Amino acid sequence: MTNSINELEKDATAIFVIGTNTTDNHPVIGYKIRKNVRFNGAKLIVADPRRIELSNIADVDLRFRPGTDVALVNAMMNVIITEGLEDKDFIANRTENYEELVKVVEKYPPQLVAQICGVDAEDIRKAARIYATAERGSICYAMGLTQHSTGTDNVKTMCNLALLTGNLGKPGTGVNPLRGQNNVQGACDMGALPVVYPAYQAVTNAEVREKFEKFWGVPLSPNNGLTIPDVVDKAHHGEIKGLMVFGENPMVSDPDLHHVGEAMDNLELLIVQDIFLTETAMKAHVVFPGVTFAEKNGTFSNTERRVQRVRQAITPKGDAHQDWQILCDLSNRLGYPMNYSSPEDIFAEIRKVTPSYAGISYQRIEKTGIHWPCPNEEHPGTPVLHGEKFNRGLGLFHAIEFKEAYELPDAEYPLILSTGRSLFHYHTGTMTRRSSALNEFMPSNEVQVNPETAARLDIVDNEMVKLITRRGYIEVKTHVTEMVPDGVVFTFFHFSEAAANVLTQAKCLDPVAKIPEYKVSAARIEKI
Q: For residues 420 and 406, what is the distance between their CA atoms, to the nearest angstrom?
């Protein structure tokens, strides 16, 4: 997030929520948004293919066709520019490439985009005016925006909208991705990406690489690493022989699970380090039992870039070991010594090689976390990014054309299938499906179907059906609901016995981020 969570409760005067069912997937943040709307009069724009809970209090509810995010936001920018609502001073002083943006968005008038997205043109105009005229406008998004073959384009388009209206660099504004898990931000910060070292320092930068070679005492590759879909493909073809999976369950979470399963079975060595025997761990040659958050010390960095202490509350159970000790033991036995004495010892190294963490110490975050970047111990941290300038100097507009999703409905597969999360379960269900209380609320998967779609297919609520795509099928019960529009169906990915990712495709990835297109698949439903 460029800004902080509490700003959504008190500072933002307009909030644009797109591709996030916030009250279900980020309930605390969803509550803060609701509170701001109800008690402070903040305006709310919701853009989502489904009618989510926040739609009930929204000033504008844009239920657009899955995969048409760029067209929708380009149309909003068309309105803003046409009506002279752009922030001219901000554009002139802090941005570049504006003229190229104007050339593109003029092709997306609301009356045309309304037909592409399946929304009312006047609603597009209303949303544009609310956001552009707000004193402080904030954008929030999640994986409904990113998990597309055009995910990077979608994010750049949201950045364009913020730049166009000057909604960056001050409280209550910003472009704010809501991370899907508690330490996704921290994992990325520490270099758990194939193209960067900690603090997003490029692997291909010779000067950066030399710094880490000196610090770690080993030669390092000048080449970018592989993304997860690349790893799965190469394992499938026998080019990767061994794989270590740490806190991940690709046998439920990755697209086209038949393909993933074949890839895992083709490995000579599969190591899994996790807290439960997951579906992936069941395929492993070696399992390292790690520990839960309550059994460890260390730090988490949350979605607002706040680095916070985690303190051990209970002793590890059974044969479980501290995650960092497992990794150190493995490294020592493979010939590279890692002789840390504690998580704080590791954090001391982090501070030396990670400029954005340099000023953060355990002592400084004893009671309250600090937002990075924090370059020195006198620095208070940075709740709001881009206050005076952008890292690259000027903010860059990207002129983005709309592209359709890779796989669209046809005569054989006439429905659009989208996938996502439930309020009651978390990711692949590794933890939450072991909770009897949560299973009482949602014991099994379902597919949400509009009443008109259900009537055409002669299916009724709670009926078991086959949900089918070109990759395979699952048997799942129906939930007939107005939440989804006619022609769109939605299912959840927490349930291994009816796994949504049997259905999703891994062939067409975002060309930059290599994200699979989880949110748009051509599908059909058959009666059983």
A: 19
